[in-house]
Amino acid sequence: MRIVTQIAAVVICCSGLAFRALGQQTPYLEKTVSVRQSTLSYAELFKQLSAQTGVVFSYTNFDDSRKLTVQYYKKPLRVVLNETLNEGNCMYKMKGKYVILTCKPVPKKVAESNDVIVNGYIYSAVDSTLMPQTSVYLKQYRQSVITNEYGYFSLSFPKSSDVLSISVAKENFEDTTVVILSKKRNTVVIYLQPKAPPVKITIDDAVVIEHQPKADTMPLVSVDTLPEQPFSFWERFKNRQSNLRNINDTFFTNYSFSFVPPVSTNHLLAINTVNRYSFNILAGFSHGVDVMEIGGIVNLDYGNVKYLQLAGIANVVSGNVKGFQGAGILNTVGGNTDGAQLAGIVNLVGGDVHKVQGAGIGNVVLGNVYGVQGAGIYNFTWKHTEGVQLAGIVNYTRSFHGVQAAGIVNTVWKKSDGFQLAGIINAADSLEGMQVAGIANVARYVKGVQLSGIINAAKRVDGIQVGFINVADTVSGVPVGFLSFVRKGYHKIELSTDENLLNTLSFRTGVSRFHNIFTASTQFTPNNRIWSTGYGVGTTFKLSNRLNLDIDATGQQLQVAGNNSFDYNLLSKFYVGVEWQFAPKVSLAAGPTLNWLNSDLNGDDFHLIEKQLTVPSFYRDEGVSFVNQLWIGGKVAIRFL
Q1: Peptide bond preceding 230 in cis form (omega within 30 of 0)
Q2: Torsion angles phi and psi, residue 139, rounded to 5
């Protein structure tokens, strides 16, 4: 049983290979035949053709004894039959391997056909290879066909034509025109010459001569003629459109009507035709539009479009658009847009945008934007934006000049010159103007104002930072916030004591003109210990190389150690003093202070704290719940860094 199964598998496999090979056999009419120049009867000719191709001729009422003079070399059987049976009233048709000939007597009145059929083959003049995917077209009738894999074509034209010119075009080959004079069925064989690129000859490293060699002296070269497009769609589209690759001619028409390509008034040459007015029920192709195009679903133009283009779903343009472009879902433009571009979902532009661009979800521009760009979710501009960018979530551009507003994020990869407003974060490489964000602003260089609800971060700031936290490497302006840290700014660690022997450790950070002061203090006594934490701000003015003037304002909450309750005892100090730097990164500071203590009379700590204050107050105001005291004191300190 196992042996039978294996034999069956081998038989099935071999049968499959046989059927595949059979399916790939060359059709009988495309098999080539060769006949030496001689005068033969039809019977003798049919015998040679049968021997070379395997066909069997079947006919009645046909005089096969008639003589004819023939000569063929590697010609398709179709060409031989068309030429040898052209005379008389005989026709043939293929049924399997059988060539069935039918001959009828010529009637007295023959109903002539209104069309003339021209068929034939296209060959390369270099090596006589067949030329598939070659465009054969009639300019005056907008008719076109593409040769099959055997280089064969067939088309028809009205007999009313006086002289008919058939144009043949193939990528990397010279365009060829054939004039048909006969009004009968014609079979033609056309050879195409390859395009020869110019050869540059340099003489004495100075003179360059471009020489165009003859086609028969140069081998066929592969030249990439695809235009540079930012979107890969057009490259794939051109690979599938033989007429677009092959035909260099551009046709023009006033009106075009299309149901769906190629059901169009321009037929297969629609993609090579520029229309003034184009109406597409479902979809349409063109080489451009000069006035207006309206499509039910899709408009696809390999060229420029102006002045109005509307589509139910999408407009796809490889060139530039001037005027208004609107689509229910998508607009994509390979070049520039100048006017208004609106899409229900997204706009894609490979070049620049001038004036207005709006989309329900997003705008993507690989060039520059000059005007207003608005989107429900995002705007993405690869180069420069000059104007207004509005997005529900995010704006992105390399450089920016104008107004940029987003619900969440604004990002400028290089320079931002203008106003950035974001609900959460703004990011820019360099900013000249103003950044406003609900949470954070980030920039490498800032010339102007950074304003955020939480944090500002920059490498260099020439202006003002306003935020809860400010971080920078270098600041030539002023950072204002709860905490400002400037790496190349003002940093001091201070140990000090005052008139009440309250010993304080302070960290001063920011810039000399405005810095934050964080304090922690303690007082040691035999019976009780007072401690406090505080915060303040200060400014420093330079008097000389070693002498500075300090003005500080601080506040600290006093607590008694061991008491778990929180009682309000706020000690505020206003200090004016002098700092003397007597050694590198070491200085002494001293000066008077104005002290104001505001305490809760009902608290457990107040009376203990009041006993520890050794300096009497010059002002005391005691109310129902709070007491205010003022006194003059002083501070001496040593500072490091």
Answers
A1: no
A2: -60, -45
**What distances in angstroms separate CA 345 from CA 297, 331, 350, 618, one per listed residue?**
15, 9, 17, 73
CB contact set of 601 (below 8 Å; sequence gap of 6+):
622, 623, 624, 625, 626, 627
pTM of the model: 0.70
- The length of the chain is 641
The alpha carbon of residue 630 and the mean position of all alpha carbons in its chain are separated, in whole angstroms, by: 68
The continuous run of DSSP H or E covering 354 comes out as strand 353-359
Q: Which two tokens mark 614?
A: 């050794």
Q: Is the pLDDT reported for residue 5 higher than 60? A: no
Q: Which residues contact 563 (CB under 8 A, 6 or more apart)?
A: 604, 605
- If residue 3 lies in a helix (H) or strand (E), which one and from where to where? helix 2-23
- Can you name the CATH fold of 490-640? Porin (2.40.160)
Is residue 1 scored above 50 in pLDDT? Answer: no
**Contact present, 610 and 525 (Cβ < 8 Å):** no
Q: Between vectors from CA 494 to CA 490 and to CA 499, what angle results, nearest 5°? A: 135
What is the spatial distance between Cα 331 and Cα 341, in angstroms, rounded to a whole number?
Answer: 8
- The one-letter amino acid code at 158 reads P
Half-sphere exposure of 421 (CA within 13 A, CB side): 10
Q: Are 381 and 393 in contact (CB under 8 A)?
A: no
> From the centroid of its chain, how far is CA 354?
17
User: Would you put residue 418 in left (φ > 0), alpha (ψ -120 to 50) or beta?
Assistant: left
Q: What is the pLDDT of residues 514-550, one digit of tens each?
A: 999 999 999 876 666 788 999 999 999 999 999 999 9
Residues 239, 245, 246, 250: is their CA dihedral positive or negative?
A: positive
Can you spell out the DSSP letters for 448-475?
Answer: EEEEESSEEEEEEEEEEEESSEEEEEEE
- Please write the tens of the pLDDT for every residue from 167-212: 899 988 998 888 877 666 677 888 888 887 765 555 555 555 554 5
What tokens were used for 356?
A: 């207005």
